Amino acid sequence: MRVKLTSTLFCLCAGAAMAQAPDPDIFLVSLGKTAGKLTVTGARNLTNRAGYDNQPNWSRDGRTVFFTSTREDQQADIYRIETTAGSTPVRVTLTAPESEYSATPIPNKNAISVIRVERDSVQRLWSVPLDGAPSTDIVEGIKPVGYHTWANDTLLALFVLGSPNTLQLASSISGRGDTIATSIGRSLHTTRDGQVSFVHKVSNDEWWLTLLDPKTRQQKRLVRMTRRVEDYAWTPDGLVLAGEGSVLKAFDPQRGGDWETVADLASHGLTGITRLSVSPRGDAVAVVAVPSAPGRGSDRSR
Q: Which pTM was predicted?
């Protein structure tokens, strides 16, 4: 039963890229600016081990990174790690035979929201207080939930599995949700001005980064995603970051145009970039990638 519960969401969250060897790690990639342009100044392996470590998300104070990890008991739980060198992961959830994914800080609460794969394999959204108080479900009637982002204190954007997958706006007060879009990607984010971003998969080869205004429900296409890339993240100053192979790219909605190369992270020992999460200060990005250099755990900061 444990294997069933773990693998149910593993296939959804990890994707085909996670099946390759070696396993990906979570890297801390330092960011800076030179002549007004974003630059990479170093990279360090945060997780540095065999096994599933994925779905990084920063704490609101920027001191720690939450992530999903599968350890000896084959259950997926939430861990957190401080970003200072030499820090070790701390377990946040221990709920076997249930598993948790996609840890996200809840606005104005000392808690994270997670996707919990329950004993009956149903995937729902739960609140996990960080003070040890009992967990509670947030929108009990909406399932199966794969991914989510908080648009504000009470409004959620949810990736709900189905044929096709749908984007729903849901209230944590009423527990009800409305379908807004179909055929979406797994990466949901809230921008600095309260817009919800998602990837609209118009066809197998046409994917668009799209903004949704939660109030008016109007949608706006921003830029076409690089082929087969659906993971991205926003910087605090409004840039969009995404990876293609070992290359970190950026798009500036204010300038328009297309994606521009920030750096080739192969020089820092990374390839196969997937998920990203930018720190609240914008000085670092947590990147899920495959170590490309011989051996694990090299520190290539400079």
A: 0.90
